[in-house]
Amino acid sequence: MAIQNSSPEEFEEMIGQQGYVLLDVRSPEEYTEGQIEGHTMINFYDPDFPDALAELDKTKNYLVYCRSGNRSGQACQLMEDLGFEGELYNLAGGIRAWNAYKNA
User: Fold this and answer.
1) Closest Cα partner for 70 from 26, 104, 11?
2) Residues 3, 64, 66, 75: which is the catalytic one?
3) Could you tell me which residues are beta bridge partners of residue 63?
4) What is the DSSP annotation of 36-104?
5) Are 46 and 87 in contact (CB under 8 A)?
6) Is 66 noted as a catalytic residue in this protein?
7) Which pLDDT tens digit goes with each residue over 20-71?
8) pTM greater than the 0.90 cutoff
């Protein structure tokens, strides 16, 4: 399954659709920069991060975001390596791009 980079507009269209899980991989300190309602948070910097990902349902589609899009891209790659079968979408530009889009 290919990892797809998505714009905030594309991301918003998928949020709330059946079978999509919204995953925030930022640290708790970054949470104050805003969040997207309905997310599950798993800290990328937590030593147990790979184990936490491995516990997720591998058949679902995931919308993954972080602060800038870098860690979420790495998380998507790790999810692919762990055998996730669903679609993996990385929010290009992360929460910063999301906030700019929502506040435009």
Assistant:
1) 26
2) 66
3) 22, 89
4) -TT-EE--TTSTTHHHHHHTS-TTSEEEEE-SSSHHHHHHHHHHHHTT--S-EEEETTHHHHHHHHHT-
5) no
6) yes
7) 999 999 999 999 999 999 999 999 999 999 999 999 999 999 999 999 999 9
8) yes
